[in-house]
């Protein structure tokens, strides 16, 4: 089974609105669950927790529950997660497209077609 792209509790990314910086962390795998914190100059505080599953709704913390920014925060957090998944796919595609070692190695480097590393 493949490893998740980031470990549990890992920083995923951030987004901003005015002076507020929102940070997204993965807190669980299978199902993927995320936490959003907000730092507005008074230190980070919890905003919401949600699962990355179709139809899942965030669980808002305290005063954030019902705030007018909630739909925007939810959308931005999911964009951050989507960018992470896209980067992981691009990285994997790049690895699959790489040239064989013999084609990539200079003449002075050992390779399957040139085991002595001579030109």
Overall description:
With 119 residues, the protein is of the alpha+beta class. The protein has one domain. 26% of the residues lie in helices and 28% in strands. The longest helix is centred in the C-terminal third of the chain and has 27 residues. 11% of the residues are buried.
Describe, in short, the structure shown.
With 119 residues, the chain is of the alpha+beta class. The protein has two helices and five strands, in the order βββββαα.
Oligomer: single chain
Widest β-sheet, arrangement of strands: 1-2-3-4-5
Distance between the termini: 42 Å
Number of domains: 1
What gross morphology would you assign? globular
CA radius of gyration is 21 Å
Residue share in helices?
25-40%
Structural class: alpha+beta
Uncertain parts: 3-7, 98-105
Beta strands, count: 5
Count helical runs. Answer: 2
Major sheet attributes: 5 strands, antiparallel
Strand portion: 25-35%
Order of helices and strands: EEEEEHH
- Calculate the mean pLDDT score and round it: 79
């Amino acid at each position: 089974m493949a490893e998740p792209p980031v470990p549990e509790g890992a920083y995923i990314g951030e987004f901003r609105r005015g002076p507020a910086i929102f940070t997204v962390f993965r807190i669980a795998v299978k199902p993927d669950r995320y936490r959003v914190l907000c730092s507005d100059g008074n230190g980070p505080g919890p905003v919401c927790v949600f699962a990355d599953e179709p139809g899942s709704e965030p669980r808002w913390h305290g005063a954030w529950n019902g705030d007018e920014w909630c739909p925007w925060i939810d959308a931005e957090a999911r964009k951050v997660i989507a960018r992470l998944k896209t980067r992981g796919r691009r990285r994997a595609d790049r690895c699959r497209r790489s040239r064989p070692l013999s084609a990539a190695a200079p003449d002075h480097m050992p390779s399957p077609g040139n085991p002595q590393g001579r030109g």
